[in-house]
Each structure stands twice: as C-alpha cells, then as structure tokens.
Amino acid sequence: MLRLEMYGSEFYHHNACCLLAAKTISGRWVILALGGCPGNEGREYVLRRILCRAVRYGSEVLKAQEGFFNGLVNVVVKVMGGVFPELKQNEERIRDIIAEEETSFGKTLLKGIEKFKKAAQDVQGKILSG
C-alpha cells in the first residue's frame, strides 16, 4: 500500500508513477507472456514506448536502479501465475526481454541527456533551436 506522507501535486505525481509501474508490470508482461515483443512498428512499438516510459518514471521518480523491473518478474509470476499460467511458462523469456529493454533504453536515455546538456550549454539567448 502506498504511504500517504506526501501532499498536493507532489503526492499525485508520485501516485501516478506507482500506478504506471503497476499497470506496466501486470498488463504488459502478460502481453509478453502471450508472445508479444517490443519492436519499432505498430503494436510492438506501443509496447516498447510503454515499457520505456515506465523505466524512465521508475528511475526518475521512484529512484529505482537499472534492472528494477527485471527484478520484479519473479514476484509477478508468483502473484499472477495462477491466473495467467503463460507467465510461468515464459518467465525466462519475459525476464530477458525486460532486461534488454531496460538496458537499451537506459543507454539511449543517457545519450539523449548528454546531447541535451551540450545543446543547452551552446544555446545563445533563451531559445534552444530544434
């Protein structure tokens, strides 16, 4: 249960991030168990974007370390495996996909942050081109 020690918009932002993480863990991993896979087109791209968004919020807001979502696979399998036996059957596949997506997105995010910092330093005036 979420501890209610934060108030105002800060609480709502934190709560929204926790809900995003929970929805990602429960719903999206079932999609992976049923054969879905993140990709660059169509439904696969939507799945990738949802996973990346959850990873970003997990690291920025929840202060989770890289591998946070991958570390939760066994918990989700224990909790939801009775209802979705595909989770148990595909646990290793799900863990591999989540680990790869977390690592790949983490590298991409770091590169993007570095590029932004460099561009922000080079900006003249108050407008960042592009």
TrEMBL record:
Family per record: Belongs to the class-II aminoacyl-tRNA synthetase family.
Alanyl-transfer RNA synthetases family profile domain: residues covered: 1-130
Coiled-coil segments on the chain, per record: none
Keyword Phosphoprotein annotated: no
PROSITE patterns on file: AA_TRNA_LIGASE_II_ALA
A Pfam family assignment: tRNA-synt_2c
Keyword annotations of the record: Aminoacyl-tRNA synthetase, ATP-binding, Ligase, Nucleotide-binding, Protein biosynthesis, RNA-binding, tRNA-binding
Organism: Morella rubra
Domain of life: Eukaryota
Biological processes annotated in GO: alanyl-tRNA aminoacylation
CC per GO annotation: chloroplast; mitochondrion
MF terms (GO), sorted A to Z: alanine-tRNA ligase activity; aminoacyl-tRNA deacylase activity; ATP binding; tRNA binding
The protein, known as: Alanine--tRNA ligase
